[in-house]
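for the recovery benchmark. tokens below, seq after
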């Protein structure tokens, strides 16, 4: 059962984001990116207040670098659509299970990002999850 509403066009959009942001990280890396995106919609906190849809999340200004590159605009493939459906349906994977931020640093992962603690690195991406009551929705059971 979906944890966020998604039409086919939303699934395609999320699939394109997964591919553009993390194709080199393999299927798990793409799932982790998807988790962060879905968490941003579900959490309704911090920089992500008011995000209710996949398009709002994907096109939030300065949220994902991939949307400014032509690679993002390629047609989605079935593989990425399948992965997008998994995260839309609430499947969560560590270290992005509760994360709202990730990025790819040139070196080691900093201990905090946007004042949030480092969770773990997966390949080239570092993941960070919120602390405090403001973002407690990200921890709610599905």
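predicted aa per position
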């Amino acid at each position: 059962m979906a944890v966020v509403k998604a039409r086919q066009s939303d699934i395609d959009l999320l699939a394109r984001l997964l591919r553009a942001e993390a194709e080199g990280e393999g299927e798990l890396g793409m799932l982790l990116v998807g988790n962060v995106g879905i968490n941003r919609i579900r959490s309704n906190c911090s920089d992500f207040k008011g995000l209710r849809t996949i398009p709002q999340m994907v096109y939030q200004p300065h949220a994902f670098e991939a949307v400014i590159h032509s690679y993002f605009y390629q047609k989605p493939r079935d593989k990425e659509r399948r992965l997008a459906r998994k995260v839309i349906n609430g499947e969560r994977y560590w270290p992005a299970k509760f994360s709202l931020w990730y990025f790819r640093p040139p070196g080691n992962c900093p201990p905090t990002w946007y004042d949030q603690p480092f969770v773990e690195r997966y390949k080239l991406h570092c993941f960070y999850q919120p602390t405090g009551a403001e973002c407690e929705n990200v921890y709610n059971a599905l």
